[in-house]
Amino acid sequence: MRIIKYFLFSFFAFSFSSPVLSSEITVNKISSYQQANLPKNGTYDGFIVYFKDDFNNADKKKPTTEKTAAQKISSIKNIVIERKISTGGYLIKSTLKNSQEAENKRIFNLLRKNPEVILVEPNLIFRATVLPDNDPGFSNLWGLKNTAYGVNAVTAWDSGYSGTGITVAVIDTGIINHPDLNANVLPGYDFISDAVDARDGNGRDADPSDEGDWTTSWFECGFFYPPSDSSWHGSHVAGTIAMVDNTIGGVGVAPDAKILPIRVLGKCGGTTIDITEGMLWAAGLSVNGITNNPNPAQIINMSLGGPGSCSFTEQSAINSVIAKGAVVIVAAGNENSDASGYSPSSCDKVLSVAALDENGNRASFSNYGNTVDLSAPGTSIYSTIDSGSTTPQGPTYGNYEGTSMATPNVAGVAALLLSKEPTLTPQEVMDHLISSAKPIAGTCSGGCGAGLVDAGLALGSGDGSVLFSDSFE
Ligand SMILES: [Ca+2]
Ligand SMILES: [Ca+2]
Ligand SMILES: [Ca+2]
Predict the structure, then answer these.
(1) What class, spelled out in words, does domain 27-124 have in CATH?
(2) Neighbours of ion ligand 3 (CB under 5 A)
(3) Which of 74, 82, 283, 313 could form a disulfide with 326 if both were Cys (CB 3.0 to 4.6 A apart)?
(4) Catalytic residue annotation
(5) What does the longest C-alpha to C-alpha distance in the chain come to?
(6) pTM of the entire structure?
(7) Ligand positioned closest to the Cα atom of 246
(8) Which range has the top average pLDDT, 11-25, 105-119, 417-431?
(9) Ligand positioned closest to the Cα atom of 180
(10) How far is the C-alpha of 282 from the C-alpha of 168, rounded, in Å?
């Protein structure tokens, strides 16, 4: 049996937009920003003070200088003007080292009451969050957002969890050289046994580079299948999980997770043996003739499948990697039929993922049914690909759809959860994701499992305890 990638092309798009932020603070309104109380000590570093003269043009008074500012507040002891800041205020600090709360409060209140001062604000300290507002493609990533349709990765990032320390194996077509991926890509392996399928001139090897999976004729692979350009499928999947949080392109669901690329799908798909041995190696188990993987994955993403029920070989490999500590997340399939007729979506102990569209409905192509555990966005998913129609030509981005694209959304959320609760077992990860899923906003005839995976909710319940399980075993 040949196993194929579960994705469909929609359209390719380059999309770069910059955030537009603009706010004018009018003269009359500045005093309305005055707050009555100071935040907790340690959450700010000095005060930003604005003087009336700088906001009172009618009086035609001269703007303050550091000298006149110092004069205006000279009655307040133990403070110093550090510098004028570009918004027109002054940074003022206590001269006492480790100034205590009462002292800060005294300074704050005296500044507030000073007739020359129009506004005092604490100079707040912002902690780093992973919120990727520098990635210009962020606006394209509808599936990451905290909406009725997205997986709500942003809430997990805001609470400080971004996949750090977690490795996700992407069992797929390999990986491309891409500046929005490279920093998160670990050394993987190429498990494609067939040199012709692999297009790299040999059998299994340590280089999982995607050589391109284009085909030029209907019978090139020995079965009837439409010719197509190279898909760069594995890199698109990898990007959805962990595109790098930087100033280019998009960002993954878990931008600090690592990707372990396991190449199993060549131009004609992949075989059960190559896929299952790739899984075993990914999880850190031994495979004959190959040095063990030094970076075992806690999550295995398989955006692939084929018709038929789960085979013994597949189920054995799945059981082994789960026992080793890897959760297995698989695509439900793109046949608009019951997922129980396809594998690995019908295998036991895997998390099987259906695709939703931008309105929260089951995507028209997505499989469904009792073997589906969860759903996730799977249409117009923006991620990393190559621009080449055959061999790699250079990095770009594209929008794909498929249960292949929904699956890495769940894998990414699993990485967020594990970065918060690294001791969860694969079954506990599955239980958390399932029990915390939110109802889908649209409709899903046939059944989309527990609903839409939600990172915020999953991490909210991610305290190591299982809320409840869908398992009746
Ligand atoms: Ca090879
Ligand atoms: Ca290779
Ligand atoms: Ca990026």
Answers:
(1) alpha beta
(2) 135, 180, 244, 246, 249, 251
(3) 283
(4) 172, 233, 404
(5) 89
(6) 0.73
(7) 3
(8) 417-431
(9) 3
(10) 9
